[in-house]
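Long-time lurker, first post. I've been practising inverse folding by hand and with some scripts of my own, and I keep getting stuck on stretches where the C-alpha cells seem ambiguous. Below is the full C-alpha cell string for one chain I'm working on. Before anyone asks, I'm not after the true native sequence, just a reasonable design that respects the backbone. If someone could post their per-position residues I'd love to compare against what I wrote down in my notebook.
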C-alpha cells in the first residue's frame, strides 16, 4: 500500500533551492513511482513526466545578446509536500552563455564566429529520478562591419556621376543599386541634386549596419537674362545669372560678375545677389546696337566654399532706340472684382513691354484699403520682366474695398515712363478663416490632459494622461470612437511620449517610469517592451520615430534634469544608449523633430541651445543660436520638410509671440514674422504641408484661438466660430486635410471634448 500526499503548489525555484529541497526528500519513502496492481493502481506521484520546451534561434551574431526562455516542469517536493517545480540547468552551453532559472542568456564571442555551437539544457531530476532535456545547434555569424564608404568625388556638377566604394564584411548593398562587392567601385547615375546613398551590410543572422554618404553639387550657371546670343536687348536692362544652388553672396562682386563692351572695356555697375540669382545693374544706359559680353568667374563659391568648375560667359547685342512708353494691359484681380479671397492674395499687373526693375518698388506699386490706409507688402518683378507682383505681408481684411495703383514712375528698359498713374479696385470676400466641426463624445475616453495622440493614416489614437491607463481610437470618416483594449496595457501615466511606427503606437516613459508598451490597432492588442538597457525613468522628455527606431532624449526625474537617451528598435525589442559627447545640456519640456536623417532638439526650461543627433554615427552637433527665437519651455515645433519652425513658449515671466525657422543644411535661423495671435505656451502646432497651424494654450488665461503661418512669412487667424473651449495640455494631429484637437484642460478641469479644423472652406 502507498501513502500519497497531494498539494496544489507550483514552484519556480532557483537551482540551489531546488537541490536543497530534493535532498530533504530522503526522509520520504514512496511505495511506488509508477502504476501497479492493487492499491498501486493509483496515479503515481511522479506523473506527469518532466517536460521542457523552448524556441531558440538557429542563427546568432557575434556581440549580440540572445535570451531564450524555456517552459519546463517536473515533480518535486516543497517543504516535503508534492509540488511542481520549473527551471532548467545548463548541461552543455558554450563560453559566454549562462542559465538562470528558466532563462538562457548568451553573447557569442569573436572566436565562435562561423562555427556551429551546441546547446543542451535539462530539468533537475524529478522525485523518480527522471529528467527532460532539450538540445539544439546555433550557427554563429560574424557581425557585419563597414570599414569605409567613400566616393571618388564628393562633389559633382549637375548631370555628372561619380563612383562609390564600400569596404565591409558581410553581405552589402547600396540602397537602390542592389548587391555590391566589398572594395569594388560602382558608378552612380547622373546626379542633378545633392544625393545621399546608404550602404547596408547584413549577415546570415539578419544583423544589420548601415552608413550614409552624401554627394554634393558643384555650382553652375543654369540660366541667364538675356540668353546667350540675344539681340535687341534694351539698353536699360539689368543682367542676371541664376545658379544651380545657393551661393556665398560675399563671393559675388564686381570682380566676379563682369560686363564688357566690344573693346573689352568693363561697364560700370552694381552687383547684388539673392535667392540663387546674381544681378548686374549698369550705372547708366548701354549703347544702342552694340555687342556686350557678361562673365561669371570661377571665383564665385557656394555656401560650402565650392567654386564653379570654370568661368561662364554669354554675349548679346542691344537694340535700336525705343520711344514708346509702357502700358498696363491686364490686372489680377480684375478691376471691379468681388468676393476676392484675401488670404494669400497676389496682385499682378501685366504691362505691354518689359520694365526696368529699378523703377519697381513700394513707391510705384501701392495698395490701400477703403480708409486709404497703405497695405504693407513686397513688390517684385516677375522673371519675364513684363509683370509686376504685390504680395501683402499681412492678411487683407474681409468685406473690404481695396485700390491698387501703378505710378507713372514705372519705366521701360529704354527709360520711357508710363504716361499717367493707373488704378483699379476690388472687394474681398466675407470669410476665409477656415471652419470648425464638432466631434462626437459617444464612446470617447474619459476627460484628461497631458495625454498623447498619434495619427495612423485613418484614425487618431488617444492614450494615457491624467493618471489614466485607457484610451480610444477616433475615426473622422464616421465621427465615431472605439475603445482600446486594456489587457497588457502600460500602467497609468502622464507626461509620457508616443510615436507611430506605421503599424504600432509605441508609448514610453512618463510618471516616473521607464516602461512602455506597443499597441497594434489592427488586432486591438498590447505587447510589452523590454526595459533592459532602457533609459532611466523620466517625464517631459521627447521621442521621435526615424522609420526604424524610436529615439528618446532628455526629460526630468528624481535625479534631476537629464541629457541622456536611447534608441529603441521595435523589430528586435532592444535599446541602445546614445552618446552624450557633445549632447545639449540637460533639460525638460523641450521639443524634437526628425528631419529624415537627424533628430533636432531645441529649447526647454532655461535652455537656449539645441543640438542635432545623427543615429548613424551616434554623434551630436551643436546648432547655431544667432538669430534663434527666445528659448524656454512649452513652445511648439513642426518640420516642413526642409526647416524646423519654432513658435511661442514661455521663460516663466513672458509669453512669446514670435518664433524662428531653422535650416539644418545651412545651420542658420531666420525669424518668423510677428504672429496674428497673442503669445502663449502649452498650445499645439501641426504642419499641413503648406501651413503651420497653432491653436489653444495659455498666456495667463486659457486660450481658444489660433492662427496659420505659411512659408511666405504670412499669418492668418483661424476661425473662432464653432471652435472648441479654450484649453491647454491638449493634443492635435494632422490627418491630411484637417487638424483634430482633443482633450486638455482649463479652469473647469480636464475636458472630454475636441474639434476638427479645416483650413479652407469645404466646397459643396
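-- Answer (accepted) --
I ran through it position by position. Result:
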Amino acid at each position: 500500500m502507498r501513502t500519497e500526499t497531494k498539494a496544489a503548489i507550483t514552484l519556480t525555484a532557483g537551482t540551489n533551492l531546488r537541490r536543497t529541497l530534493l535532498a530533504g526528500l530522503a526522509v520520504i519513502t514512496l511505495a511506488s513511482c509508477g502504476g501497479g496492481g492493487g492499491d498501486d493502481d493509483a496515479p503515481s506521484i511522479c506523473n506527469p513526466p518532466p517536460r521542457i520546451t523552448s524556441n531558440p534561434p538557429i542563427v546568432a551574431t557575434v556581440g549580440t545578446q540572445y535570451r531564450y526562455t524555456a517552459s519546463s516542469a517536473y515533480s518535486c517536493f516543497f517543504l516535503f509536500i508534492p509540488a511542481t517545480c520549473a527551471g532548467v540547468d545548463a548541461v552543455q552551453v558554450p563560453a559566454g552563455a549562462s542559465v538562470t532559472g528558466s532563462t538562457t542568456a548568451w553573447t557569442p564571442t569573436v572566436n565562435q564566429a562561423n562555427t556551429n555551437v551546441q546547446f543542451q539544457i535539462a530539468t533537475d531530476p524529478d522525485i523518480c529520478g527522471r529528467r527532460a532535456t532539450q538540445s539544439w545547434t546555433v550557427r554563429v555569424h560574424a557581425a557585419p562591419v563597414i570599414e569605409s564608404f567613400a566616393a571618388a568625388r564628393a562633389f559633382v556638377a549637375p548631370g555628372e556621376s561619380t563612383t562609390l566604394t564600400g569596404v565591409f564584411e558581410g553581405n552589402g548593398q547600396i540602397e537602390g543599386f542592389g548587391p555590391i562587392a566589398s572594395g569594388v567601385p560602382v558608378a552612380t547615375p547622373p546626379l542633378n541634386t545633392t544625393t545621399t546613398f546608404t550602404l547596408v551590410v547584413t549577415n546570415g543572422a539578419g544583423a544589420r549596419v548601415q552608413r550614409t554618404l552624401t554627394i554634393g553639387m558643384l555650382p553652375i550657371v543654369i540660366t541667364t537674362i538675356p540668353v546667350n546670343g540675344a539681340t535687341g536687348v534694351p539698353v536699360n536692362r539689368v543682367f542676371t545669372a541664376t545658379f544651380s544652388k545657393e551661393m556665398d553672396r560675399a563671393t559675388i562682386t564686381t570682380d566676379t560678375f563682369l560686363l564688357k563692351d566690344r573693346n573689352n572695356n568693363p561697364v560700370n555697375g552694381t552687383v547684388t545677389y539673392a535667392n540663387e540669382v546674381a544681378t548686374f545693374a549698369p550705372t547708366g544706359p548701354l549703347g544702342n546696337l552694340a555687342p556686350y559680353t557678361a562673365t561669371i568667374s570661377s571665383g564665385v563659391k557656394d555656401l560650402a566654399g565650392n567654386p564653379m568648375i570654370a568661368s561662364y560667359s554669354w554675349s548679346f547685342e542691344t537694340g535700336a532706340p525705343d520711344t514708346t512708353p509702357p502700358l498696363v494691359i491686364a490686372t489680377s484681380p480684375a478691376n471691379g472684382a468681388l468676393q476676392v479671397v484675401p488670404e494669400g492674395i497676389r496682385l499682378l499687373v501685366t504691362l505691354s513691354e518689359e520694365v526696368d526693375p529699378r523703377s519697381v518698388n513700394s513707391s510705384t506699386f501701392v495698395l490701400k484699403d477703403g480708409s486709404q490706409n497703405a497695405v504693407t507688402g513686397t513688390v517684385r518683378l516677375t522673371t519675364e520682366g513684363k509683370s509686376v507682383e504685390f504680395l501683402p505681408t499681412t492678411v487683407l481684411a474681409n468685406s473690404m474695398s481695396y485700390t491698387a495703383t501703378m505710378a507713372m514712375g514705372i519705366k521701360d528698359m529704354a527709360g520711357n515712363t508710363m504716361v499717367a498713374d493707373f488704378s483699379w479696385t476690388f472687394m474681398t470676400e466675407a470669410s476665409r478663416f477656415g471652419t470648425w466641426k464638432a466631434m462626437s463624445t459617444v464612446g470617447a475616453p474619459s476627460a484628461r490632459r497631458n495625454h498623447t495622440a498619434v495619427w495612423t493614416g485613418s484614425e487618431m489614437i488617444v492614450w494615457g494622461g491624467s493618471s489614466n491607463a485607457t484610451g480610444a481610437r477616433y475615426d473622422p470618416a464616421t465621427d465615431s470612437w472605439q475603445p482600446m483594449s486594456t489587457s497588457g496595457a502600460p500602467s497609468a501615466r502622464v507626461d509620457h511620449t508616443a510615436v507611430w511606427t506605421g503599424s504600432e503606437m509605441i508609448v514610453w516613459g512618463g510618471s516616473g517610469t521607464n516602461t512602455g508598451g506597443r499597441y497594434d490597432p489592427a488586432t486591438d492588442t498590447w505587447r510589452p517592451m523590454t526595459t533592459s538597457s532602457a533609459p532611466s525613468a523620466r517625464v517631459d522628455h521627447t521621442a521621435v520615430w526615424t522609420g526604424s527606431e524610436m529615439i528618446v532624449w532628455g526629460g526630468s526625474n528624481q535625479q534631476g534634469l537629464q541629457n541622456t537617451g536611447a534608441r529603441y528598435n521595435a523589430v528586435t525589442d532592444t535599446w541602445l544608449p546614445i552618446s552624450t559627447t557633445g549632447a545639449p545640456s540637460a533639460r525638460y519640456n523641450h521639443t524634437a523633430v526628425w528631419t529624415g536623417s537627424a533628430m533636432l532638439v531645441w529649447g526647454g526650461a532655461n535652455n537656449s541651445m539645441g543640438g542635432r543627433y545623427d543615429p548613424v554615427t551616434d554623434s551630436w552637433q551643436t546648432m547655431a543660436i544667432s538669430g534663434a527665437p527666445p528659448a524656454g519651455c512649452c513652445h511648439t515645433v513642426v518640420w516642413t520638410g526642409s526647416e524646423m519652425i519654432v513658435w511661442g513658449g514661455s521663460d516663466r515671466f513672458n509669453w512669446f509671440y514670435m518664433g524662428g525657422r531653422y535650416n539644418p543644411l545651412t545651420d542658420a535661423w531666420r525669424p518668423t514674422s510677428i504672429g496674428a495671435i497673442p503669445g502663449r505656451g502649452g498650445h499645439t502646432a501641426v504642419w499641413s504641408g503648406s501651413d503651420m497651424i497653432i491653436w489653444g494654450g495659455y498666456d495667463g488665461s486659457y486660450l481658444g484661438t489660433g492662427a496659420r503661418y505659411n512659408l511666405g512669412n504670412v499669418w492668418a487667424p483661424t476661425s473662432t466660430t464653432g471652435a472648441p473651449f479654450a484649453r491647454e495640455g491638449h493634443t492635435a494631429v494632422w490627418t491630411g486635410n484637417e487638424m483634430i484637437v482633443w482633450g486638455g484642460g482649463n479652469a473647469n478641469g480636464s475636458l472630454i471634448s475636441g474639434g476638427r479644423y479645416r483650413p479652407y472652406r469645404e466646397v459643396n
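A couple of notes from the structure itself: The chain is about 0% helix and 40% strand. The domain at 145-217 is CATH 2.60.40.1080 (Immunoglobulin-like). Happy to go over any region you disagree with.
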